[in-house]
Amino acid sequence: MKAVGVVVEYNPFHNGHLYHIQKAKELTQAEIVIAVMSGPFLQRGEPALISKWSRAEMALENGIDLIVELPYPFATQHAAVFASGAVEILHSLGCDYLCFGSESGNINEFDSIFNLLAEKKDEEDRLVKEYMKQGMSYPKAKSCAIQELTSVNKTQGLNLHMPNNILGYEYYKSVRSNAYPMQVCTVARIKADYHDKKFTSDTIASATSIREELLQTAGSLTTIEPFLPSSSYQALQQYKETYLTYHTWENYWSYLKFRLLQTTAEELSTIYEIEEGIEYRFLKYVKEASSFQDFIRLLKTKRYTWTRLQRICVHILTNTKKEEMQTYSKPAYIRLLGTTANGRLYLKEKKKQFLLPIISKLSSFEKEKIVLDVRASQIYALGVPVAAQQKLLEMDYSKPPIMK
Amino acid sequence: MKAVGVVVEYNPFHNGHLYHIQKAKELTQAEIVIAVMSGPFLQRGEPALISKWSRAEMALENGIDLIVELPYPFATQHAAVFASGAVEILHSLGCDYLCFGSESGNINEFDSIFNLLAEKKDEEDRLVKEYMKQGMSYPKAKSCAIQELTSVNKTQGLNLHMPNNILGYEYYKSVRSNAYPMQVCTVARIKADYHDKKFTSDTIASATSIREELLQTAGSLTTIEPFLPSSSYQALQQYKETYLTYHTWENYWSYLKFRLLQTTAEELSTIYEIEEGIEYRFLKYVKEASSFQDFIRLLKTKRYTWTRLQRICVHILTNTKKEEMQTYSKPAYIRLLGTTANGRLYLKEKKKQFLLPIISKLSSFEKEKIVLDVRASQIYALGVPVAAQQKLLEMDYSKPPIMK
Lengths: 404, 404
Hints:
The structure is a homodimer of 404-residue chains.
Chain A: E1 3-8, H1 15-28, E2 32-38, H2 52-61, E3 66-70, H3 72-75, H4 79-92, E4 97-102, H5 107-119, H6 121-133, H7 138-152, H8 163-177, E5 183-188, H9 207-216, H10 230-243, H11 249-261, H12 265-268, H13 278-285, H14 292-299, H15 306-318, H16 322-326, E6 334-339, H17 341-350, E7 358-359, H18 371-381, H19 386-398, E8 402-403
Parallel strand pairs in A: 1-2, 1-4, 2-3, 4-5, 6-7, 6-8
Antiparallel strand pairs in A: 3-6
Helix pairs in contact in A: 2-10, 4-8, 6-7, 18-19
Pfam family, one (chains A, B): HIGH_NTase1
Catalytic activity (chains A, B): cytidine(34) in elongator tRNA(Met) + acetate + ATP = N(4)-acetylcytidine(34) in elongator tRNA(Met) + AMP + diphosphate
InterPro entries (chains A, B): Rossmann-like_a/b/a_fold, tRNA(Met)_cyd_acetate_ligase
């Protein structure tokens, strides 16, 4: 059985994701689709709207055959680390293809840039440092450096200021630089930009615009219905009924505030990604901020992007230390979230060739290896009202993989 | 001007406290009464129902002339440390007398036991250790040891199983063993026992029974009105109107739970009073407990008293480390909460003789010395609904001492 892998967040699963899965199958003629998905906290440093289990359900209803969790130490990172963790897992699961969505839609453009930059690594590093000295953030400096190097050599074409092109390039680079035997292809995003906050088509909308709408309509989902498969729509409705809320940063603001008010600069500086004295800004502005949004607005500088600050807040919330993260240079396990019958066939056929152990139940695995994922799930559960917390809190210990 | 000192919590201030102040004046003929009062967290390991500022107002309206805060490292401790901090402060403020309430009401009984135990220190220590080996808690072992030593020598009389006798004995011991030039006297508690949960008189009730009633009547204070001076009654009403709630442990339960869920046993073991592997019980039961009461009930053992467990929870909430507490063997400052005109006269007359610096405004004092008190106030402020938090949060930075 040939498998194509995709890297996803499904926050929430919408028609654009469905299109991506269909195209991935069409392009590769693969028989099964494997997704590696972020858990409770996402690459943008935000809690997922609904739990990983509900998002996995959505995926399995709509064309994904096997879905696993991207561990916390990779899911909550900038593009390069996020991509390397995801690619490693897809490779370990024996994927023959990797297919990602991009603004470009042309894999040759990724190939050209990769070949060019492979020769110019030192120059790239030098330019990144130079731009950062001028006060740019790392992602901004990186895309400017690449843009400068490539435009000089007339291989324009791939716009590396576009968010999905950036991530896509990192996937491509991970596969190629590790020389993994995986073919990489890309599907052009259609009808919606990543950053769109308003709807621009009748059936396809960005996850960003769907979230905006969802959080504003206080319970009524009718305006987002056209953009989601019906099973996704129902899962969203059901989640709200069961847990009384979607998860947004504001649900965690009082916890973050509490943690910052009870701690010292010295203690805070042990948290992952707290660097360069930024801890003092955190301790100063927490006393003034009236909400999470307000807090990030106060913290924001030219050098620290909104998403980087949000990711730091996630690490404070989950109490993730620098020394803990050091031990996770590569994924050490694969947490299985769910399978279809087709996915189970694949598992049966390929399991022995997998390069990492598969965790189906927490009890069957050394817990210290998965401690960061478990902690993130526990903290995530506190984002719903007390009455609904226990159910969510226990899920990570008792829930077996979903079988469709 | 002669001054009598009292050690108080006023949670809340009631007619029994008024009686104590009047008797203290009568017995000593002192011209002013000085109170040293716990701040946001109390000796029993509970948040105070209302803020220290509102409790200081109550005190100044009802006979106290000068009120200062017992710093956190003494206020949240077992009887001996609580008493030694409070006595030290009253001595530093030049009090000529110390007057405490007790079940006994006879200072000679305290004197006899002190003299007897001074000779039998080693035997007392040995007995305490022995009883603890049998599984008793420290306070229980201590009162049993003393009871055994004193009954053998026919100086019964002082029942050291009674909570106010225990505290009183510690005050008495602090004054005598430091040879402070302070006369000590005691007033018998009337008409209500410390542990009473029901009302047993028409005008005097224990703070415990008043709190029980207050928290059950959801807003209506009429049933407790007979037991409070009218100014106290009004202050309680006003507090609820301004901050929407009284402070109870349940208001902090979600923060405590969050902190425990995000931490490791190793990190938890750095918290003050976490000893003997009790951290593992905390981490285990937090996942099962449905409320703070339920949590303590699950944690409870023969050796760990309810109040000791609550005090540990306070230290977790305020993130107070063992190494921080080590630096506070004696009070280093006196935080002034309020004065009457009479109190200000006393300050003017005696200020130069005080043995510790007086802090009237936070900005005028080295902040690192008062960091634990400030942190405790900040965390305490999170116990009210978000809408009312900011006002309470800023109070510790901006509020000057109360002038009556």
